[in-house]
Amino acid sequence: MKNKLKYYLFLIPASSLVLSCSDAGKKYEDVEEAKTCSMIFIDKSVSVNVNKKFVNEKYTKVISQLIDENVKGKGDKIEVYFVHENTAKGKAVEVTSRTEKGELQGASSTDSEAISTEYNMSMDKERSVFKKIVFAQLASQNTSSSKNNTDIWAALPLIDKVIGKGYNVKAYFLSDMVESMKAEGRRDFHTNPPVDDAAAVGWAREDADGLKATLPNIGLAQIFIAKPFEPTASRKKNNPAISTYWQRLFLELGVTAEVVEL
């Protein structure tokens, strides 16, 4: 994958919103207070077709809602990664809110109302731009051979690293969660899925033992999973044991917040 795209966008009115990619090496000291980083992992492997009407509508709604809920002002940011064989190098885009609210202290009630109105209008415009950027990433196609494998594990150190910078991290997996890597010591749920919850829990414990030492911060993450399956999908297609595996893996890794399936 190419390096992350950079966007420099300027919006009116006076609070001038500037959207840009933050430097990858930026330290938390540069952030005035703990902000929210929404990490969106979009599955670009062959098993997920975002062009299907149900999938596209579901994922569009998830993206729209998370941006509305999580981007509340200066410093909040969105990072988008593509999930495939090279997830670790799959960052597609990063945008950061630059909207600041005017000083309210000492302002008259009329001025305060005007400042708040301008701020809300600016935030709405900024969120709208963010949505267009992320929707474009959702629609993009993966035509490379990387689509033949799915490395979801690689998302974990990415999440851990951002938490280590001091952000409140909300990670969203827009994926069927079918880990599929053929290297030794990896899982390939396409060829060998967990047959039941007992197997899923056993594998999750085993895998967590090998992963947790390198993930000191991940316990603070909030995890959300949006699968591409319709409610009528069969158990063979939407294997519930795979959901059990991920629920248990995150639990074993120390994630205290409940993993939410959207």
Automatic annotation (TrEMBL):
Highest taxon listed in the record's lineage: Bacteria
PROSITE patterns for this protein: PROKAR_LIPOPROTEIN
Name of the protein this chain belongs to: Lipoprotein
